[in-house]
Amino acid sequence: VHLMESGGGSAQAGGSLTLSCAVSGHTRSTAFGWLRRPPGKDREGIAFIDSDGTIRYKDSVKGRFTISQDDEKKTLLLQMNDLKSEDTGTYLCAADPWANRLTVGASYWGQGTQVTVSS
Q1: What DSSP state is assigned to residue 52?
Q2: Which pLDDT tens digit goes with each residue over 86-118?
Q3: Range in 17-21, 29-33, 100-104 the model is least confident about
Q4: Which end of the chain lies in a sparser environment, N or C, as judged by fewer CB atoms within 10 Å?
């Protein structure tokens, strides 16, 4: 599985950005997720979609971020609304046959895309 993110950039607080992750390879029974690494902090998981379509969010992004994917599982999206300065960081998409491994050591990673939110 190969992953490649796009769509990062700069936004004002309260603004919106959409991140996209292009997926190639065998993706049946694969869980996907978006994680981020804030400046000077550890990586954290923020949104996940399991192979059965179950979606989970980090509490701090619930109601603001939406994860989705197309039916073929070739594009993973993260719609980010009402952005806050604490959303700044490097955003990565990840994939693994086991959803529980997405936060502790996924098998597949994108290269990351930078999101900067200014207040």
Answers
A1: T
A2: 999 999 999 999 989 998 889 999 999 999 999
A3: 100-104
A4: C
Q: Give the helix/strand (H/E) hosting 103.
A: helix 102-105
Residue 87: how many CB atoms within 10 A of its CB? 22
Longest dimension (CA), the chain: 41
Cβ-based neighbour number of residue 38 at 10 Å: 14
**Structural tokens at position 37:** 């690494």
Query: Hunting for tokens 């952005």 — which residue is that?
Result: 83
Residue 94 token pair: 């990840």
- What's the full length of the chain, in residues? 119
- Condensed to tens digits (0 to 9), the pLDDT of residues 34-61 reads 999 999 999 999 999 999 999 999 999 9
